[in-house]
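Trying the structure run again after the queue cleared.
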Amino acid sequence: MTPSSQNKNTPAPLAFVTGATGLLGNNLVRALLAEGFQVRALARSEAKARQQFERLPIEIVSGDLHSIPSFSAALSGVDVLFHTAAYFRDSYTGGNHAHELEAINVKAMKELLDASFVAWFMQVPLPS
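Done. Tokens:
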């Protein structure tokens, strides 16, 4: 679904972007806006997001992948989900980060997909 194929009377599709203040997410938010999408951006720091997206017409959702239920209501009405958030550590920092890598990059992603499916399913009209 691209906004250019949308009817003028139809609202622009709504994209939800995790990791919106990261390098990839920040650029994706701007590209989506340029293509005519509405954007709902997830950020751990609302202040950082407001600074980065100062005058851009986006909705900022404060949240963290450690607690998907704390922001899952914001998935309601979303047409497309872009998951650009990730946990990583540069190799020079040392230590074993396997637990946190799995918790955020695997388990939280699955939980995010489950929550987005539930939010999508709840907006599907059921026959009466």
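DSSP finds three helices and four strands in the chain. Worth checking whether this holds up in the mutant runs.
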